[in-house]
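step=encode ok
step=design start
structure_in=
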């Protein structure tokens, strides 16, 4: 089996930032999502604007946009990019809120990390806004949904369903 070359390590195994100067500038886009699991009570409060801290979804959306713009300040080996569009959408689901960050622009490297950071921070901000009503809220499934552009082309997550944990095999007693 061929050995995978790790591009962010130099010859001595130290972390390094990849030089992308020779890569062509192309249109690129990445979409990532995160989910905040909430109780029916908290979802109802959220829906009628009854949370103590105010408009939670708009605050989360704006936090995600701001975070996506600051990704290279947070992730050490990320290149500082210039996205031309960032959006964070919120959508209610029966057991919580899905936050979806979309980041696009023209650049030499992709926007996957910007979209992931946008979705993750939007989820963190939503948690901050609902914690007075529900400290047990859970952030889960921070994941890349799709990316396009660049050498590797299109990637789209095959399934949006959450993988179920496998049940341990029962052991026969001796």
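sequence_out=
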């Amino acid at each position: 089996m061929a050995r995978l070359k790790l591009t962010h390590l130099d010859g001595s195994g130290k972390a390094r930032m990849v030089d992308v100067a020779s890569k062509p500038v192309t249109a690129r886009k990445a979409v990532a999502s995160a989910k905040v699991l909430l109780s029916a009570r908290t979802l109802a409060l959220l829906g009628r604007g009854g949370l103590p801290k105010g408009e939670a979804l708009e605050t989360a959306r704006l936090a995600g946009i701001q975070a996506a713009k600051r990704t290279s300040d947070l992730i050490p080996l990320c290149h500082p990019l210039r996205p031309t569009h960032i959006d964070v959408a919120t959508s209610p689901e029966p057991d919580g809120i899905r936050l979806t960050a979309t980041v696009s622009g023209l650049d030499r490297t992709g926007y996957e990390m910007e979209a992931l950071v946008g979705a993750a921070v939007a989820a963190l901000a939503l948690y901050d806004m609902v914690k007075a009503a529900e400290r047990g809220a859970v952030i889960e499934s921070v994941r890349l949904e799709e990316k396009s552009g660049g050498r590797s082309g299109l990637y789209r997550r095959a399934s949006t369903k959450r993988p179920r944990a496998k049940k341990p095999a029962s052991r026969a007693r001796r």
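step=design ok
step=annotate ok -> Confidence is low (pLDDT under 50) at residues 170-174.
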